[in-house]
Every structure is written in structure tokens, then in C-alpha cells.
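Q: Got a minute? One more chain.
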Amino acid sequence: MIKGEVPQETGVVLKRFAVTPVLVAAVFVAVAPSGFAASSQTLPGLVSPSGNIKCLYVPGVGTPSRLLCSVAHARYAAKLQSRCMGPTGVGVDWHGFDLTSTGRGNLLCTGGILYNPATQHPRYLLVGYGKNWRQGVFTCQSRSSGVTCRNRGGHGLFLSRSAWRVW
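A: Always. Here it is, folded:
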């Protein structure tokens, strides 16, 4: 960075595949040089009672807001990791699922995290089974069978240890 240059905001490059809802993202995180104050932002999220499923709300800045959801232990993890790596094995890692404020849910393949850890800090709320969590245009329901999240457009995702679905 050239002295006196203002740091750029975090940018995300996204690529969607036509056959199956898959989101591939390359992440660029700008770091403020010394002398520039970085403001801190809490990113609200939910965690299931088992601790296995987490969803994080990331507000949009010039892009739609999104939920980033992950499953710590999933029976399908190896299959999705293979899908993200592609047939040549030189793709990116499977990091869970993505739901934007206006679109359908997607499988999330990325080479990094999709928020700026220097300025954005997740804070997860335990959402008991049978309870709802709302943030922005998203509503998530926690059940013993899994977590279902929807946006106002009716698009969503269902996640559990044994199954997943996006629509």
C-alpha cells in the first residue's frame, strides 16, 4: 500500500455453478496500516444446543446481507469437500452454506473466511430447540432434527448432522 492511500473495504468475488447451488468465493481482506483506526463490529449469530450448527449474520456493504452457516460434524462432509475441490483436486475448501437476503441457499466453497476478522467479531447466541432467531431479513428455527433458516423471499436452507437441503 502506498503511504497515504486509504485502505480498500473487504471484497468478495463470487462464482455460482449452474447445476447445483454452489457458491465459490475468493476472499480479499484489507488490513488497515498503522495510524488508521479500525472500528469493531459485532456479527450476531446462532449456535444450536448441541454446538454442531452455527449461523453468522454478515451485513451487506454494497452487497446483499448473508447468513454463513457451518456444521462441525456432518456425515456428508467428505462428499461436499470433494465437490468443492473439483475433479482435479485443486479447488477450495467446503466451509458450509450461504444464504443471501434475496437469493436461494448455496453450498459454500471458499478459500477463506467471508468477513474481516480484524474488524468484525462473531458473537453466537445459543438458540434452544423449538426457538426462533431473527436477524435482518433472516429467521432461523432450531429443532432437535436440525436448523432451518429462511429469508423473506422464502428461500432457505436446512442443516443437520445427517442431511442438508437448500432452496
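A: Residues 11-28+42-166 form one domain.
Q: Perfect, thanks.
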